[in-house]
Amino acid sequence: MNALSRFFSRLEGPQTLGRGPGFWIGFLVVLAGACAYPLFSDGYTVGNTVYFFTWIFMALGLCLIWGYGGALSFGQTAFFGIAGYSYGILTINFGAAYGFTFVALLIAIGIAALFAALLGYFLFFGRISGVFLGIVTLSVTLVLERFMAQTAGPEWKIGAARLNGFNGMSNMPPLTVPWPGGDIVLFPDVQLYYVVLGLLVLVYLGLRILVNSPFGNVLVAIRENPERAEMLGYDIRKYQLGTFVIGAALAGLSGVLYTSWGQYITPSSMGMTAAALPIVWVAVGGRSDLTTTLVGTLTVLAVFQALTIHGSQYALVVMGIMLVLTVLLAPRGLIYALARLIARPFTKRQPGDA
Amino acid sequence: MDVGTLAFSALYQFGDAFAFLVLSACGLAVIFGMMGVINLAHGEFIMCGAYVTVSAAHAGVPLPLAILIGALVSAAVGALVEILIIRHLYDRPLDTIVATWGLSLIFTQGTLIVLGSTMAGVGTPFGSFTVGDYSYSLYRLVLCGMAVLVIAGLYALFNWTRFGVMARATIQVPHMAAALGIDTRLVYSLTFALGAGLAGLAGGLYAPTMTLVPTMGTTFIMEAFVTVVVGGADVFLGTAPAAAVLAVVKATMTSWYGQLAGQIGLLIAVIVVIRVLPRGISGFLLRERA
């Protein structure tokens, strides 16, 4: 029991909303509901829910970089795309046998993280911050999109994998679990749902531990005042770079899951519109907290899809309006504002609460 | 081919790249340099200018006048955006980026819904001329001249007019300027409108040379970003020299490996430059002078 309570105490702290048995009982209820959900639903709807889940990793990564680290990265979709393409190239060349798809997943995330480390080195060690960081990362994303869009010719291939320019790559094998008596192929259905749900819980809890650890506290100190954090003896460049790489790896995880979910990846998944969407999810949800980001991302995605059914053109306009209104009226996020409103009667104000 | 024609060809390509960089960046640079705000809807103001210009030209207005109308309409839209949104976010520069990105989504998709996926353009005026074995578009030379004219015009505006003096005072010490009776809110509105108008001008000038689609702003925006990042906060000591340096990179890479190589070259240049000169060329020059 003691070990369990020690574990829970690492999951909560000043950097995250939600503490105490009440919150965790609620968390377990939601988790149980999520586990039971496929029993009450059909394969198609479950596959669609997995589609929502794949994006959350990227949103959580952006939440870490932007909400906790205070560095606005517009390049999340670049890492998403790099990992997605890497996964496609690796699995088309080496197949899906012996659980190679999961090795490819790790390698693809590694490539995205490596690219982020390289880019982040120039940015953070050049002490680029604020608005410039945003526009440089966005420029990188746009150029990467244009580069991938012009790889249509037959000369653009890596091994057996054609890059196919604007149309993108397709027909890579989905994630496959090696199993005695026939591999389990994770098509967008119930099996994939449980794998992704498991990953999601793991990442969510892991990030909670991270932001409440000394690393997370320093990160928030940097967000609040970089000079002060530096005067206290922290090398802020290393902390920012570390955060950037973790965020990029999470975006890469999203990219791989998305690619294996639909068995395709196109350059437009990195473009200007695609790059704006993670910002919308995180800003509307509430960038300064992991839980509100998670809830916000799911909510916005659901709204977006509901609108898309009635006309995808209008959905993007609504996203834009939502973003502008959030920034003007609820700068800390709609879900965040809502969460504080709900939580107010139940919590004693603690010193340090805003 | 003799040395003269080769030199002309290189100069022409440099001038073309220089004009593109200056014209696409100056609106962004004015707003950033004066207000510290990065306007992510910059590309959409360019698109707005191009669409209005072409619509006016289709209605029978002569092209130069049509371009002017395009710039003015963009400026008016810019003023409206400033009053409705940007004004409330001056103390939160990161949020301004996010809000203007929202605007960019709204404008791009709104144009797509209202005007459809493409619009009939107007032909490139003035025809072409030949030097040596190659023929060149005369209009590109006009664009090059316009780029120089815009820089000169901005210099005159900020140094020799009453508005320029008030704007610079507002930028340096806002509360002092306000105490001296300058309406700083009006100055900010006008500056933002000026930046949007310059974007519209760029759109109008380039409208005859490209296809009109709602996403055309994206074509300009990366070059504009790169120029402003390399240039830093000053339009004259930053944007112009940055455009000159980057034009060499872009023209060289483009003539070797094509359009995309030019963009990749720009991107690598900017990443290296920010590592060496984090505050851009103008930051470097101003520190040297001080």
TrEMBL record, chain A:
It comes from the Bacteria. Keywords: Cell membrane, Membrane, Transmembrane, Transmembrane helix. This is Branched-chain amino acid transport system permease protein. It is found in: Cell membrane. InterPro entries: ABC_transp_permease (IPR001851), LivM-like (IPR043428). The chain crosses the membrane at residues 21-40, 52-71, 78-96, 102-124, 131-149, 192-220, 241-258, 264-283, 290-308, 314-339. PROSITE patterns: PROKAR_LIPOPROTEIN. Its main location: membrane. Pfam families: BPD_transp_2 (PF02653). PANTHER family: HIGH-AFFINITY BRANCHED-CHAIN AMINO ACID TRANSPORT PROTEIN BRAE (PTHR30482:SF10), HIGH-AFFINITY BRANCHED-CHAIN AMINO ACID TRANSPORT SYSTEM PERMEASE (PTHR30482). It is a multi-pass membrane protein.
Automatic annotation (TrEMBL), chain B:
One of its GO terms (biological process) is amino acid transport. It is a multi-pass membrane protein. GO terms for molecular function: transmembrane transporter activity. This is Branched-chain amino acid ABC transporter permease. PANTHER family: ABC TRANSPORTER PERMEASE PROTEIN (PTHR11795:SF447), BRANCHED-CHAIN AMINO ACID TRANSPORT SYSTEM PERMEASE PROTEIN LIVH (PTHR11795). The chain crosses the membrane at residues 17-38, 45-61, 67-86, 98-118, 138-158, 186-208, 220-249, 256-277. It comes from Ancylobacter polymorphus. GO terms for cellular component: plasma membrane. InterPro entries: ABC_transp_permease, BCAA_transport_permease. Keywords: Amino-acid transport, Cell membrane, Membrane, Transmembrane, Transmembrane helix, Transport. Belongs to the binding-protein-dependent transport system permease family. LivHM subfamily. It is found in: Cell membrane. It comes from the Bacteria.
